């Protein structure tokens, strides 16, 4: 769970902490687990959100019973209060060259750009915006006049994907070791009031040229490839193909929680974009033998 092997002793520890500290809330418990397990990311920060998600999964599986929530989720309230981004008086049309040069920036949490980013996704993207857990990067793209023209979110890669895993030659242990070196483009938005041919594929190209160094700077390790899943019932994946992403196949119409094969989900095309010529070797390297810090090659 959350990239960590959880054994009976770990579950016993959680139960003992819950019994010994009935006054603790869920956050206090997750922080204690990070300290006990020395569970940190590549930059040495405690993986508190990963611990919280792990606790929720253990509770849903019936292994532990967590203390009741002491209030509504602040993340849910935060999303309900997001202000929409006002569209321009007239739609933005014309040639891509009329918008260039484009400015691509990483969105810092809590900034004015973060509020604008969330406003765009919450009110303009058909999936809305879910709060991210784990490593992620958010990009906001502006044109030469300072107008927001695109935003993109990259987060945790899919735990399993048959066509992707076959393409990389991943078995279970290899996937588990290397999944953090792959990131999923979970949201990509060109607002509806922008009608500029080739803008989407151009933005994807700009991000692909910088995301390795951005990931290295934020998390202390690079990523070696990008993936995304395109809902076939809504989109054709044209911008990804135009940006030279590889279509590897399609999903099986299941979710990660569908262990009984009863949940039907939209079939999605699987796209993949390598960020270095030796991506396959980097994503299949045995644990302990990889040298990080080569994001700029």
Rounded mean pLDDT is 86
Series of secondary-structure elements, N-terminal to C-terminal = HHHHEEHEEHHEEHHEHEEH
Structural class: alpha+beta
What portion of residues is helical? 25-40%
- CATH homologous superfamily grouping of the largest domain: Gcn5-related N-acetyltransferase (GNAT)
Strand order of the largest sheet: 2-3-4-5-7-9-8
Summarize the structure.
34% of the residues lie in helices and 17% in strands. It is an alpha+beta fold.
What secondary-structure arrangement, pairings included, does this model have?
Elements: H1 8-20, H2 26-37, H3 48-60, H4 74-80, E1 92-93, E2 103-106, H5 112-124, E3 137-142, E4 148-156, H6 162-168, H7 172-178, E5 182-189, E6 194-195, H8 199-208, H9 211-219, E7 225-231, H10 238-242, E8 246-250, E9 268-274, H11 279-283
Parallel strand pairs: 1-6, 5-7
Antiparallel strand pairs: 2-3, 3-4, 4-5, 7-9, 8-9
Helix pairs in contact: 2-3
Q: Which characteristics define this entry?
A:
297 residues, alpha+beta, two-stranded parallel sheet, 11 helices
């Amino acid at each position: 769970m959350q990239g960590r092997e959880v054994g009976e002793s770990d579950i016993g520890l959680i139960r003992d902490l819950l019994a010994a500290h009935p006054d603790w809330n869920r956050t206090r418990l997750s922080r204690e687990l990070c300290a006990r397990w020395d569970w940190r990311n590549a930059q040495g920060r405690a993986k508190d959100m990963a611990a919280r998600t792990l606790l929720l999964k253990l509770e849903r599986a019936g292994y532990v019973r967590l203390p009741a929530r002491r209030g509504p989720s602040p993340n849910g309230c935060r999303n309900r209060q997001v202000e929409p981004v006002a569209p321009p008086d007239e739609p933005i049309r014309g040639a891509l060259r009329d918008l260039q040069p484009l400015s691509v920036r990483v969105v810092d949490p809590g900034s004015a750009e973060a509020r604008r980013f969330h406003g765009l996704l919450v009110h303009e993207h058909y999936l809305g915006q879910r709060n991210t857990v784990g490593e992620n990067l958010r990009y906001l793209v502006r044109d030469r006049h300072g107008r927001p023209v695109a935003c993109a979110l990259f987060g945790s890669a899919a735990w399993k994907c048959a066509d992707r895993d076959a393409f990389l030659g991943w078995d279970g242990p290899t996937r588990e070791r290397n999944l953090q070196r792959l990131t999923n483009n979970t949201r990509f938005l060109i607002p509806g009031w922008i009608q500029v041919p080739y803008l989407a594929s151009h933005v994807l190209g700009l991000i692909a040229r910088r995301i390795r160094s951005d990931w290295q700077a934020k998390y202390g390790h690079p990523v070696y490839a990008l993936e995304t899943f395109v809902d076939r019932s809504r989109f054709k994946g044209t911008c990804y193909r135009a940006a030279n992403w590889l279509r590897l196949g399609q999903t099986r119409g299941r979710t990660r929680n569908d262990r009984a094969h009863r949940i039907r989900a939209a079939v999605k095309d699987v796209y993949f974009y390598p960020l270095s010529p030796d991506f396959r070797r980097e994503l299949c390297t045995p644990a302990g033998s990889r040298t990080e810090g080569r994001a700029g090659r």
